[in-house]
Amino acid sequence: MSHEILQRASKCEQRFNKRFEEYFDAVRASLDAPSFSRFAPECLELLRDLSLRGGKRMRVVVLHEAARLVTGEPLEALDAAALSIELLQTHGLVHDDLIDDSRTRRGGLSTYYAYRERFPSHPQTALGLTVLAGDLALALSLQALLEAKAPAAVRQAMVEVQTRTAADTFVGQIIDVERDFTDAADTEMLHCVADYKSARYSILAPLQLGLLAAGEHPAHAEKELREYARLVGISGQMRDDYLDLFGDAAVMGKPCGTDLRDGKHSYTVRALLAVVDDDERRVVQAALGDPSCTPQTIAAVREIGERRGVPDSMRADMRRYAQQASAVAAGWRPRWREEAVTFFELLPLWSVERTM
C-alpha cells in the first residue's frame, strides 16, 4: 500500500472508532428496556466492550473506498453503513466464540465466557444470553441502516444488501461446521466456505453499501464485484489458515495449531494430507481434533509440512488468488475513479503479505 492510501485508511479507522463510541453511548441512553432490568443493559455493555476492544476496521475502509470509486465528497450515509457492517461483525464474533467454545477474543474474555463467569452455576443461562447478545447486535445492525441519513430508496436498498449478507453469512457458518464432518473437504468446498462465511460480509457487502451511499446501484457491476470479493476471501482465508500453523505465535499473539486442535478441515490440513506419506498422515490425523494436542505435536506437524514444501505451495496459491482479484479491480478503471481503483488493486496483495 502507498503511504497516501495507508494514511487515508488510518484516518478512516480513527474517525470510525470515535463514531462507534458515540453510537453505543446513544444506544445506552435510549435503550427501550424496563427500568427493573439489569440483564438488558449488561448485554449492551458486553457488545460495546467487544465492539470497541479492537479490530482492524478494514471493512469500514473498504466501504469508504467503495464510495470513493464514485465520488470524493463526504457522504452522511456512510456512517450508518459502517455501523451496520461492524455490528454484523460483532454478531458474528459473539456466535463464533460460542460455537468454537473460545475463551478469549481481541485480548479479553469472549462474550460467552463473560456470561459463564457471570453465571457459573447456570451454564444454560450463559449460553442463552450469549445467543441473545449476538441477536441484539444483528438487530442493531439493521436498525442503523433504517435510521441512515439517506433517501428512502437508498435506505431500503442498503437494508436489502445487509439482510442478504446476514443470511449468506449464517449459511457460511453452517457449512463451515458441516465441512468438519466431511472426511476430505475438497478445494471447492473450502472456497465455498470462504466465500459465504467471510468474503460476502467482509468485502462484497461493504463494496455494495459504499456504492449505494454514493448514489450508484451495484447491480450494474454485480458479477465483477462478486468475483473480486470471492477471490479476496479465498486468498485471505488461505492466509489465515496458513498462519495458524506456520505463523509466528509471538507476532500473532496466540498459539499456533488452534485450527488443528479444533478439528478444522482447513486449507492447511488439505494441503498437508495431499503430500504426506502414511506415517506422516497418522501424525496429522492424530492431532486433528485433539484439544489436548501438545505444542510438541503441533511442532511435529509443522515440521512435516515444512519438509514437504507446504508453506511455499500455500503462499504461491494465496498470491495467485490475490493477483487474480487485483486483475479484476484493474478492469474497473474505465468506469470508476483512479485513486479508489488503485486501493482495490493493492488490497488483496497487501492482505496476503500481512503477518497477523
Automatic annotation (TrEMBL):
Q: Look up the record and give one Gene Ontology term from the biological process aspect.
A: isoprenoid biosynthetic process
The cross-references to InterPro entries, in alphabetical order and at most eight, read: Isoprenoid_synthase_dom_sf, Polyprenyl_synt, Polyprenyl_synt_CS
Q: Name one GO molecular function term.
A: (2E,6E)-farnesyl diphosphate synthase activity
Q: What is its EC number?
A: 2.5.1.1, 2.5.1.10, 2.5.1.29
Cite the Gene3D superfamilies for this sequence: Farnesyl Diphosphate Synthase
Q: Which UniProt keywords apply?
A: Isoprene biosynthesis, Magnesium, Metal-binding, Transferase
Query: Which coenzymes or cofactors are required?
Result: Mg(2+)
Does the keyword section mention Transcription regulation? Answer: no
Query: Pfam families annotated for this entry?
Result: polyprenyl_synt (PF00348)
Family the UniProt entry places it in: Belongs to the FPP/GGPP synthase family.
Name of this chain's protein: Geranylgeranyl diphosphate synthase type I
Report the source organism: Streptomyces murinus
